[in-house]
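Appendix B. One record, verbatim.
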Amino acid sequence: MSPLTDEDKDILLKLARSAITAELIQGSRIERPKEISPTLKEKRGCFVTLHKKGVLRGCIGTIEPVRPLFSNVEENAISAAFNDPRFPSLTKDELSFVDIEVSVLTAPEVLHFEDGKDLMLKIKPGVHGVILSQDWRSATFLPQVWEQLPDKKAFLEHLCLKGGMDGKCWQNKTTTIKVYEVEYFSE
């Protein structure tokens, strides 16, 4: 995976904002780059997070690298603004108060662990985004969530609960844990 340049980051942030604006304001167009760098064409997972005056206003992403990064950012920006089930659709009046953050993910890798104690030793706060899966249930937290939940046990318990699982599911050997890292940037 190629590192993003400052120009790549600017392009992605402008793309995300223009995609949302085009949905809200008639006559607005999505500002897609005329030339797309090879890095932005790479298939990469990403999340687009919206904050309104510092408070979460929407966050949608794609964990697996299934689409080119520039397409993923555009689609996830629209979804974060209008399809996050936790929030009503963004309105035209809110647009100027919203800051956009883009998180570009590395491919998730399974983290093998013997038990809860071993997992606690292997997981890296502030570095690892975590995907926790059990049967058909799954949930993820981006590495940025460590800022609100710096305690490993609390982080993992909240992640279990987010996925509709028992709060101690992270200690169960039948639980699959995958980790990834992100490069994130915002307006």
